[in-house]
Design brief:
263 residues, Rhomboid-like fold, 9 helices, elongated
Length: 263
C-alpha cells in the first residue's frame, strides 16, 4: 500500500526492544515479577529507569496494547520519515513525557511505552491523516476483539500448563521417594517448585496488571511533543500533512452536505 524504499528498521528495533528484554526478564512467562517491574520503572527518586521504563510493561495486556499500535503506526511513519527520525521521536517523546508527568506527580512510578507510542500515533496522524484516521479507528477494534482475547487465551493456557506440570512432578517426586530414589525425588521436587513459582508469578502479574492505573495526561504529553518535534525538525512534511488534512476535511464536509440534502 505504501511502498517501502528501505527496510523499516525503527519498527523492527523498537518491537524487539519491547519483546526481547520482557521475555528474558520474565524467563519465558507472560509476566514479570514485581521486583523486575519496579527496578525498571521511572520516578524522580529513581531516575535510572528513565529509558528502561519505556521498554518495560506491567503485564501481557499492557505489552500487547502498546506493541500493536507501535508496529502499525511506525510502519506508516517510516514511509515518510527516516528510521533514525522515528527512533529519535520515540525516545525523546517518551523521556519528555515521563519527566513532565513526574514533575507534576512526584510520587508516581512510570512503566510502559504508552506516551512514546502516543507520539508515534500523533505524528502519523499529522503527516498522513488519510491513512492514520482509518488506523486510529481500526487499531482499538483489532486490539479489543482479536489481540486481547488471544492474549487472554495464552495466559490461561500458560497457567493451566504450569499447574499441570507442577502436579505431575509432585506425583513423580512422591513415587521416587517411595522407591528410595532420594536424589531423583529431590530433583523432581525442585522442578515442581519451579513451576509453582511460575504459577504464582502469573497470578501476581495478572493481579498487578488489573490494579495498575493509566493516566490520560502522560499520553497527551507524548502526542503534544510529537507535534512540536515535527514543527521544529520536519516542517515541510508537516505542511504536506496539513494540506492533506484540509482536503479530507473539505471532502467530509461535502459528503455531509450531500447526505443532509438527500435526507
Amino acid at each position: 500500500m505504501f511502498g517501502y524504499p528501505r527496510f523499516p528498521y525503527a519498527t523492527a528495533i523498537l518491537a524487539l526492544a519491547m519483546l526481547v528484554p520482557y521475555f528474558m526478564a520474565s524467563q519465558g512467562t507472560l509476566y514479570l515479577s514485581d521486583e523486575e517491574v519496579f527496578l525498571s520503572s521511572f520516578s524522580l527518586s529513581q531516575v535510572a529507569g528513565l529509558v528502561t521504563h519505556l521498554f518495560t510493561h506491567v503485564g501481557a495486556f499492557h505489552l500487547a496494547g502498546n506493541l500493536v499500535p507501535l508496529i502499525l503506526f511506525t510502519l506508516l511513519l517510516e514511509t515518510m520519515l527516516s528510521s533514525l527520525s522515528v527512533f529519535a521521536l520515540f525516545l525523546t517523546a517518551g523521556i519528555f513525557s515521563s519527566i513532565v508527568f513526574s514533575l507534576l506527580n512526584p510520587g508516581a512510578y512510570l512503566v510502559g511505552s504508552s506516551a512514546a507510542v502516543s507520539s508515534l500515533m500523533a505524528a502519523a496522524t499529522a503527516l498522513k491523516p488519510k491513512y492514520a484516521v482509518f488506523m486510529l479507528i481500526a487499531t482499538p477494534l483489532l486490539i479489543s476483539f482479536f489481540v486481547f482475547p488471544a492474549v487472554s487465551a495464552l495466559i490461561t493456557s500458560e497457567q493451566e500448563d504450569y499447574a499441570t506440570q507442577q502436579a505431575l512432578l509432585q506425583i513423580r517426586a512422591q513415587s521416587l521417594a517411595e522407591e528410595n530414589k532420594t536424589i531423583e525425588a529431590a530433583a523432581a521436587n525442585a522442578s515442581a517448585n519451579a513451576y509453582a513459582q511460575k504459577v504464582e508469578l502469573v497470578e501476581k502479574g495478572r493481579e498487578r496488571e488489573s490494579q495498575t492505573q493509566t493516566d490520560f495526561f502522560v499520553h497527551f504529553y507524548g502526542a503534544l511533543y510529537a507535534v512540536l518535534f515535527l514543527a521544529a525538525f520536519k516542517r515541510p512534511e508537516l505542511d504536506k500533512g496539513a494540506l492533506e488534512f484540509s482536503k479530507l476535511h473539505a471532502a467530509a464536509r461535502g459528503a455531509w452536505a450531500k447526505f443532509r440534502g438527500r435526507a
